[in-house]
Input
Amino acid sequence: MTVVGIDGSSLISGGARTHIQEILRQVDPREAGIDRVILWGQKQLLKTLEPRPWLSLQQSRWLEKGLLPRTFWKSWILPWEAWRRGCRLIYIPAGDGSQRFLPYVAMSRNILPFMPKELDRYGRFSKEWLKLSLLRYTQLRSFRNARGTIYLTEQARKTIAGWGGKLSPSTVIPHGVSRQFCLAARSHRKFSQFSREAPARILNIGPIEPAKHQWLLVAAVQKLRQRGIPVCLDLVGPTIHPLMQQRLQQAIASADPGAVTCHGPVPHSDLPSYLKDCDLFCFTSSCENFPNTLVEGMASGAPVVAWRGSPMQEILADGGDYFSDLESDSMSLALENMLRDQSRRATASQRAQQLASQYHWATCARATFEYLALCAKDPKGARS
Output
C-alpha cells in the first residue's frame, strides 16, 4: 500500500491553501497509484477540506502554537507520526522543511529569496531581508535533499538552479485557476463614456509590500486625473509591510479625495466580483513565482496592464499591455493607452481568457499525484 503524507502545517492562507484545497478536491489519487493520503494541518485549514474516503486529516496541538513549536513538530514529531502511519513519502507544499528520516517531495513557492535585487527592496539587513535570506538557505538545502522538487514555472527552476549546487530531480507543474474566476464575456465602454460620475475603474489585487508597488500605481492614477481622464482606483489586499503601507498612505494623501479606495483583505471567493466591476486590471508586482492573481484576472476577462518582466510576460503574452519601467510615468502611459483604445481592450480581454484557459486545477492535481507516486516508488527520485 502506498501512503503519502502531506505537511500542511505552514498552509495558513492565500495561494498555498487554495492549492492544497484544489488538488485534494479535483482528483482521486488512487488513480495515480496512491492508496491513502494523510494531511497534517491547523484546524483553520482542516475545516475547509471536504471529506474523502482516501483522505485522513490529522491535527496536533503543536500546530496551534507559534513558529518555534511548529518547527519542532516538523523536525521531530511529524517524521515519527508519518513513519508510524506507514507513509512512504512526505509532500511539503510550502517547501519550508527538510525531513531527515523519510523521503520527501518539496514545492518551490517563493522566488523572492532567490532574486537579490527584489530582496533588497525590503532594506538590506532589515528583519525581512534577514528572514528571507535565511529562507533561501533552508530552501536550497531542502531542494538538494528532496527525492523530488515541484516548480511552478520553468523560469523559477532555472533561477534557483543558478544558485549552484546539485539540486534534486524536479518537474514543473503550474497552478490552476478556479472556475469562479472564469467570467462571461463583458462589454467594454468607449473612452468617451468614462465620466466624473462613472469613471474608469482600475483594480489592483495584492498584499501591500515592497515588490508590489501600489504607491506608484496611486501616483500614476493621479497623473491620469490631472490630464483630465476620469479614473478611480480600487486596491484589494492585506498590509504585509507597515513601511510600505505608510508610503501608500502618503501617496493617497497626495491624490484627489475619493480617487483611491482601499478595501483591505477580502475573502478569495469575493475577488471575482471586484474583477467583474473593473474596467482595467493593473498587475504591478515585480517579483512572482507563478502569478496566480494575474491568471485569475486574465480568466475574468478584465483587460490587463502588467509590468514587462518575467514570468508575467511569458504568461500574459499578447493578452494585455505592459509598462516597462517601475515608475509612475510608465504606468500612467500604459494605462491611458489601454483606456483610450476600446478595440484593444476587447481584443486583449478575449486573448487573455484564452491564455488563462490552459491552467486547470484538475490537470495540476493529476500531475502532482502522479509525480508523488513516482517519487514514492523510485528511491533515486523522478525527473521530467
